[in-house]
């Protein structure tokens, strides 16, 4: 395989630095838990929609599902298409009730509705699935793409670098940083897919 040109490497590094810089810039306005976990409850629907799109149809879906669709047929997208219906149902019928209850997280909602055991079960299950399924797949796909740009760097090092870069603005900025960088990433994903 031919090594990518300097321009491709510069564009990738520029986008990464710009995304991290933007995430850190947005992160500076955290004063309390509402700011950190709920972006001050001041987010508007375009930012929420774009961030939801970026987290649901991420680079993993574009890389992995496109490859699986090529190998096995378009039926691999059934999960994503049915998720659209569920997300719309959630946003129209359930989200207003969750926002009105002034909760911060789904585990907190489950504890209020059921008990502490339900909260703990959901929190542990969610962390396990996010770390070992979702994040692992996203970091692997991202590392494969980055390896095209820098083939001499080991895959594990690229994955660790990607995780560190994302954690840098996510941990400092909370939901606001994730939502605004996700919105920018959604525009980049849509533009890249169209190109």
What this model shows, in words?
The protein is mainly alpha-helical and 195 residues long. The protein has one domain. The protein has 8 helices and no strands. It has helices at residues 6-26, 33-38, 45-56, 59-72, 78-100, 106-113, 116-149, 155-194. Helix 3 packs across helix 8, helix 6 runs antiparallel to helix 7 (116-149) and helix 7 (116-149) packs across helix 8. The longest helix is centred in the last third of the chain and has 40 residues, at 155-194. The protein is globular, with a radius of gyration of 18 Å. 17% of the residues are buried. The mean pLDDT is 81.
Summarize the structure.
This protein has helices spanning 6-26, 33-38, 45-56, 59-72, 78-100, 106-113, 116-149, 155-194. By secondary structure, it is mostly helical.
What are the main properties of this structure?
mainly alpha; 195 residues; 8 helices; globular
Oligomer: single chain
Termini gap: 22 Å
H-E string: HHHHHHHH
Q: How many individual helices?
A: 8
Query: Roughly what is the average pLDDT, rounded to an integer?
Result: 81
* Basic shape: globular
Biggest β-sheet strands, sense, barrel: none
In angstroms, what is the radius of gyration? 18 Å
% residues in beta strands: under 5%
Helix fraction by DSSP (H/I, runs of at least 4): over 70%
Question: Would you report the number of β strands?
Answer: 0
Please indicate the count of domains: 1
Structural class: mainly alpha
Unreliable stretches: none
